[in-house]
C-alpha cells in the first residue's frame, strides 16, 4: 500500500513504511494469531526470543557484519552512548571530530571521564562542512566521529584513519548506504532515524574492543553484560525491536542497503538540483559534504521563510522547518521517504518561485495563493 498520509520530512522519529506500520498495528491487537498483543508477551517467551534473534540476524545480513563483531540492542538513545563510550574505553585520551550539535554533545559527556582532544572542528562556519582530517597515527584510545550530522546536513564520505579504534555515531545514516563494518570498531545508532521507532539503540562492536574493557562497571553501563545476556539482561524495548525487525525485513525485500542507497542518492540529487536551480533558495552545506539524509537549505530572502513553510504545509509537507541553531529548512530523506514525496517538494518549490518572482508591471498573477 502506498503512503497515503502527509509527506513526512521529519528528522526523527521519522517516517516508516506504511506496510510496516500496518503490520505493527495488527500485532498490537493480536500478534501472529496467538490472541495476545505484542505489548503483552513476555520478553522471555520463545516468540519474542525469536524476534530479537531474527532482528540481530537481519542486521548482520544487511550490513555484512563480520563474525568477530557483536550486535547489541540497548536503551537510553544514542545520547546514553555519549557517556558509555568514554566510561568504557577512555583510559588516556579520547579523540573527537567536532562536526556539529550531536558531536558536541558526545564531547561534553567525554569530559566527565578523562582527557579529550578535538582533532578538528567546523564550528567556525556553523558546521556547514566536514573539516579536513590528516590521517596519521597517534596515541589515543579511540577516535569518535559522527557520520551524518542530522541538524547541519553534512555527511562524512571518507573515514579518517588515526591508527586508533574508530567509533562512529551513525544514528541518522545507518542502513542508508553501504559501509564496511571492518572500518569501524564500534558503531551506534538510535533506532528512530532509519531503523524503527524510538526506544532502542543498536550497537555493533568489535569483540577486540569489548575485551579491552578492564574494569568493573555498573551492569546497565557494561557492554559485556548486554553481550553475555544476548541483550536480554533486563526487559528490552520489545515493541521497538519488533518494529525494527519488520522494517529491516522491508529493507531486505526492497533491494537491501545497496538498493536503498541508489534510491537515496536519486532523492538527494533531485532535491539539491532544485535548491541550486531555484533563485529563492540556497543550500547550507559545502557541496562535497552534503548529506543525503538531511538536506538543509535557506530562503535567500528571509521574509520568504515563514511564507514557504505555510505554502508547503498547505500541500501536505511536514517537518521541513530547520533546527533552531541552523534556521531555514531541513528535509530529511530517510529510507522510507518515497521519491514521489521529494518530487512533490520540488514541485512546491517551483510553484513558490513562480508565485514570488517579481512580475513585469501590469502583469496579473495567475496562481492564487
Ligand atoms: C538523533 C541523534 C542523536 C540523539 O539520539 P537519541 O536517541 O535521541 O539520544 C545522536 N546523534 C545523532 C547523529 C542523531 O541524529
How would you describe the overall organization of this protein?
This protein has ten helices and 14 strands. With 369 residues, the chain is of the alpha/beta class. It has two domains: 18-252, Type I PLP-dependent aspartate aminotransferase-like (Major domain) (Aspartate Aminotransferase, domain 2), CATH 3.40.640.10; 256-356, Aspartate Aminotransferase, domain 1 (Alpha-Beta Complex), CATH 3.90.1150.10. The chain binds pyridoxal-5'-phosphate. Pyridoxal-5'-phosphate (PLP) is lined by residues 12, 77-79, 102, 146, 150, 169, 171-172, 190, 193.
Layout of strands and helices, then pairs:
Elements: E1 7-8, H1 18-29, H2 46-63, E2 69-74, H3 77-89, E3 93-98, H4 101-110, E4 115-121, E5 142-146, E6 148-149, E7 154-155, E8 166-169, E9 186-190, E10 201-206, H5 207-210, H6 223-228, H7 238-253, H8 256-277, E11 281-283, E12 294-299, H9 304-314, E13 317-318, E14 329-332, H10 339-356
The structure holds pyridoxal-5'-phosphate.
User: Quick one: CATH superfamily of the largest domain?
Assistant: Type I PLP-dependent aspartate aminotransferase-like (Major domain)
Order of helices and strands: EHHEHEHEEEEEEEHHHHEEHEEH
**Hetero groups:** pyridoxal-5'-phosphate
For the termini, the CA-CA separation is 32 Å
Oligomeric category: single chain
Amino acid at each position: 500500500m502506498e503512503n497515503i498520509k502527509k509527506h513526512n520530512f521529519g528528522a526523527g522519529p521519522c517516517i516508516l513504511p506504511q506496510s510496516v506500520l500496518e503490520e505493527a498495528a495488527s500485532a498490537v491487537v493480536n500478534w501472529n494469531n496467538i490472541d495476545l498483543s505484542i505489548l503483552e508477551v513476555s520478553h522471555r517467551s520463545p516468540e519474542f526470543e525469536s524476534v530479537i534473534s531474527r532482528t540481530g540476524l537481519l542486521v548482520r545480513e544487511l550490513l555484512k557484519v563480520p563474525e568477530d563483531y557483536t550486535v547489541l540492542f540497548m536503551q537510553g538513545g544514542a545520547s546514553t552512548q555519549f557517556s558509555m563510550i568514554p566510561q568504557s574505553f577512555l583510559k588516556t585520551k579520547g579523540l573527537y571530530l567536532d562536526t556539529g550539535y550531536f558531536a558536541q554533545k558526545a564531547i561534553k559527556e567525554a569530559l566527565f571521564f578523562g582527557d579529550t582532544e578535538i582533532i578538528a572542528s567546523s564550528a567556525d562556519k556553523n558546521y556547514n562542512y566536514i573539516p579536513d582530517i590528516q590521517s596519521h597515527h597517534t596515541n589515543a584510545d579511540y577516535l569518535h566521529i559522527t557520520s551524518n550530522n542530522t541538524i547541519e546536513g553534512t555527511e562524512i564520505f571518507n573515514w579518517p584513519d588515526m591508527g586508533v579504534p574508530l567509533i562512529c555515531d551513525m544514528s541518522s545514516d545507518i542502513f542508508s548506504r553501504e559501509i564496511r563494518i571492518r572500518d569501524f570498531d564500534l558503531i551506534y545508532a538510535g533506532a528512530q532515524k532509519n531503523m524503527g521507532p524510538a526506544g532502542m539503540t543498536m550497537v555493533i562492536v568489535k569483540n577486540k574492543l569489548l575485551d579491552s574493557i578492564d574494569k568493573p562497571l555498573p551492569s546497565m553501563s557494561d557492554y559485556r553484560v548486554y553481550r553475555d545476556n544476548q541483550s536480554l539482561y533486563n526487559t528490552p524495548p520489545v515493541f521497538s525491536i519488533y518494529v525494527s525487525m519488520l522494517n529491516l525485513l522491508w529493507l531486505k525485500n526492497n533491494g537491501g542497503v545497496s538498493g536503498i542507497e541508489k534510491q537515496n542518492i536519486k532523492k538527494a540529487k533531485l532535491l539539491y538540483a532544485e535548491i541550486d536551480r531555484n533563485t529563492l533558495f540556497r543550500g547550507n552545506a559545502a557541496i562535497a559534504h552534503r548529506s543525503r539524509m538531511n538536506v538543509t537549505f535557506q530562503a535567500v530572502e528571509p521574509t520568504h521563510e515563514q511564507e514557504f513553510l505555510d505554502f508547503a504545509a498547505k500541500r501536505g509537507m511536514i517537518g521541513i522547518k530547520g533546527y533552531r541553531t541552523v534556521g531555514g529548512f531541513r528535509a530529511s530523506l530517510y529510507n522510507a521517504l518515497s521519491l514521489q514525496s521529494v518530487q512533490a517538494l520540488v514541485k512546491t518549490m517551483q510553484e513558490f518561485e513562480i508565485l514570488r518572482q517579481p512580475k513585469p508591471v501590469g502583469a496579473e498573477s495567475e496562481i492564487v495563493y
